[in-house]
Amino acid sequence: MSYKIITISREFGSGGRTIGKALAEKLGIPCYDSEIIDKVAEKSGFAKEYIADKGEYISTSHLSGLFRSNYYYKSSNEDIIRDIQTKIILDIADKESCVIVGRCADYILHDRDDVLKVFICSDKESRAKRIVDVYGEKEDSPEKRIKDKDKKREAYYKFYTDMSWGEAKNYDISLNSGTVGIDNCVDILYNIFRNSK
Amino acid sequence: MSYKIITISREFGSGGRTIGKALAEKLGIPCYDSEIIDKVAEKSGFAKEYIADKGEYISTSHLSGLFRSNYYYKSSNEDIIRDIQTKIILDIADKESCVIVGRCADYILHDRDDVLKVFICSDKESRAKRIVDVYGEKEDSPEKRIKDKDKKREAYYKFYTDMSWGEAKNYDISLNSGTVGIDNCVDILYNIFRNSK
């Protein structure tokens, strides 16, 4: 198996984005994270903050609309963003070897056998500490922020992929950054990718 | 983090046992798998086949008994086996560096920080092929055998640990042997264990 692409799905506050960026730098390949949001913004006209939210989290109004008996289905903004995002991710993966963080890239590229699908998780205490370190204090407690993000991200993943978020069998490798350590995660993934060549 | 013990939880037919044995051999440390069954048999007087089944799979009669309103709880054979098994695993882990396959060892040793908790999974097609190669054809189809084992193992894990089977966050590392390959899984785990020293 020779890997060309690494997709990183991650729990909020697990350091998955940091791992993706460090890994890409070590491998000398690009890392796509907020760059995908920029590209979707360019193509769709939606604001970046709106895309960052709707391209990975599902809103309760969107879900409840789908379950109303008298609901006449039409493409929502979430669907439009997802379709543009899907095309951008497929194009990026065709073009070059890279790391892609989040945005269901693992599912979008599931037909390819040169994708190393990674999941990064961590215990709640480490995540709570990390989100305060990285994103600062907010009105809501770190625990509430984690719970809200997990819930919406799980729902988004389930809705668009019909798979359960965080199940080991959906990935090639899952790492707990809280116990293994961020730097060790980077080294482990680097070695797997390099040894596949 | 310097690891002393490796616990391997695995889906039936994922090659987790084979990985555990090869890894232990490569590291020059013992691998406990059927040896735990032998020890439980010695202490309990139950037959080995019975322990192999009850020490990792939960029977529907045991579960339904617990949910009957007029059920007067007493220790079942499953509970007795679990208690003896728990003590044996704690003793082994205290004594020496080793690999332990299955039997909720990850949960039994969850208080220790020198345990590398591994989960091995794989896709259903690879597992079906593997169980026929390793255990031969049986009256039931490989798919049915996998479904039955998964169901009972999941229930056992949930019942005794109150965690969900196969969730990445319960382990330090999860590997998909179907895509990563058995030999690569051994190499990856070997490097993580060795580099922790």
Low-confidence stretches of chain A: none
Structural class of chain A: alpha/beta
Which protein chains make the most extensive interface, counting residues with beta carbons within 8 Å of the other chain's beta carbons? A-B, 27 and 27 residues
Strand order of the largest sheet of chain A: 2-3-1-4-5
- H-E order of chain A: EHEHHHHEHEHHEHH
Which assembly state applies to the chains in this document?
homodimer
Task: Output the number of helix runs of chain A.
Answer: 10
The percent range for helix content of chain A is 55-70%
How big is the Rg of chain A?
Answer: 17 Å
What's the average pLDDT of chain A?
Answer: 87
Could you describe the 3D structure shown?
2 copies of one chain form a homodimer. With 197 residues, chain A is of the alpha/beta class. Chain A has helices at 16-27, 34-44, 48-54, 60-67, 77-95, 105-108, 124-135, 142-161, 177-180, 182-195; strands at residues 5-10, 31-32, 98-101, 115-121, 173-176. A 5-stranded parallel beta sheet of chain A has the order 2-3-1-4-5, sandwiched between helices. The mean pLDDT of chain A is 87. Chain A binds chain B through residues 1, 11, 113, 117, 119, 121-123, 166-169, 171-176, 179-181, 184, 187-188, 191-192, 195, and chain B through 1, 11, 113, 117, 119, 121-123, 166-169, 171-176, 179-181, 184, 187-188, 191-192, 195. Strand 5 of chain A pairs antiparallel with strand 5 of chain B.
